[in-house]
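Worked example

This section walks through a single chain of length 234. The input is the sequence exactly as stored; nothing has been trimmed or padded.
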Amino acid sequence: MRRLATLVVAAAVLAGGAALALAQGTSPITMTVDATVSPNKAGTKRHPQGVKLGVTAKFDIPEAYDPPLVDRVTVLFPKGGLYNGAKYPKCSETRLARRGVSGCPKGSIMGKASGKAMADDVPTYPKVTIVNGGARRVYFYTVMTNPARVQVPVVAKVTKLSGKWSYKVEADIPKALQIVAGIPIVLHELKGSAGKGDWLATTSCPRDKRWRYHAEGVFTTGETIIYDDSVPCR
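Given that input, the structure is written out below as tokens.
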């Protein structure tokens, strides 16, 4: 069934400055993305450059198509990227679940996203708040009020890597975002931004002047969708 999980997928990749094209090439779903990294001039290891990431994504899903449920999303960040979650105030999953964003330190809020989706033939407007969870966590606190109120912190685990990639981010999609009040949710648009100070930063730009990223979506059917792309740098 069509899922709000698509929103969480796009929000998770928002932290990488671009969005995952779900099932592109293997299903009728199509997506257009406008992604930005500001500033796109890289910093150095001694002087990292803090960046703000923006993304606007539009999804075209034929009414007759019933895409499978997204179970997990994995994103690999390019070498030259730096995540400074340990430097900023953080919130916990328990506090988010109990008290929402208002229960977190103000300095832990790192960005927001909003979307337009359909619950049957009624529009609904989910909102996502991006919250710092420390050195190894980022939360995408998702709220929707129609067809029923849902507030769920989506946990994204951050792992530092060596070699070609700098970090791996993995997020499991909560059951509560799959179907709401028995109604599948269809996402059509998502727009958001993330970044404060040097929470997300760059330390270099490759010779080809592109920051590359790799994303994977794993579905309940066992299918894995792989997507590779890049954003310009200097």
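What to look for: Residues 5-232 form one domain.
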